Amino acid sequence: MSAEATTLPSHDSCVAVSRGPAVGLECRDIHKTFFARTAFAIQALSGVNLSVKPGDFISIIGSNGAGKSTLLNVIAGTFPVDRGTVLLGGEDITHVPEYRRARDIGRVFQDPRAGTAPSLTIEENLSMALRRGRRRGLSLGVNASRRQIIRAELCLVEMGLEDRAKTQVSKLSGGQRQALSLLMATITKPSLLLLDEHTAALDPKVAATIMGLTDMIVTERGLTTLMVTHNMELALQHGNRLIMMHAGRIILDVGPEEKHELTVPGLVQKFHEVAGKAFVTDRVLLAD
Length: 288
Ligand SMILES: Nc1ncnc2c1ncn2[C@@H]1O[C@H](COP(=O)(O)OP(=O)(O)O)[C@@H](O)[C@H]1O
Ligand SMILES: [Mg+2]
Known about the structure:
This protein has nine helices and ten strands.
């Protein structure tokens, strides 16, 4: 990355909602069951408590089905909770609908196709993202000032996209599309950024580029960020805090200093220690 590219453009006049400093997130005793009161009930979250400080960048790891995506979905308002409270910047958003939360919460998913509109051009997609939460309806219009902001954003990515602003998104590679998704999710400096395995579908080299871009954007914009990954290496390399989920609970929470010292084998060892304890606790609870 060049020195120029690490300085993000200022576009306060275009942001959807005026943004202050980063905010914190608080999840209190979150429970979520799918197919509740049926024989197929799945308890996806069983009392999650999480306190995220403004500007924290937290990696979330855990095996398949641990509840990682459900936690992000509950925070974003995709699913209602059975019980518990979600506070963003001190405001109780537990019952705020998903579309309203989307003004403050940027998301990037595993599938590069999920965050972008394929039939629209790159600049139309970014223009739409700039309008998020401003007025009803979506405006695709790209005036001169927006075009300048969009160009500056595209320069950041260093994939030559700034010269392809009028290219249809369907023509982009998965990596380019994921870079665009990341820009769309962060162009209005959201209060919270949720990344759900956003590099898992990319080949390793492209994934590393997207992670580099993620680090730069999160740092420069000071975004409070939760990043789900199944890759322990990635979880250790990025962010200032690491949490591990298992069976719908947070079983490990590692702060900056300890995280710095941790290795993948160390993390695996910790998983066995604490997951073992979690099983024991479950058995104790069941025995009650
Ligand atoms: N929309 C849904 N409908 C029904 N069950 C779901 C849904 N989403 C997740 N689950 C179930 O909840 C559990 C946790 O899933 P998920 O949060 O996706 O795990 P992870 O992201 O950690 O792999 C799993 O058993 C999964 O099958
Ligand atoms: Mg998941």
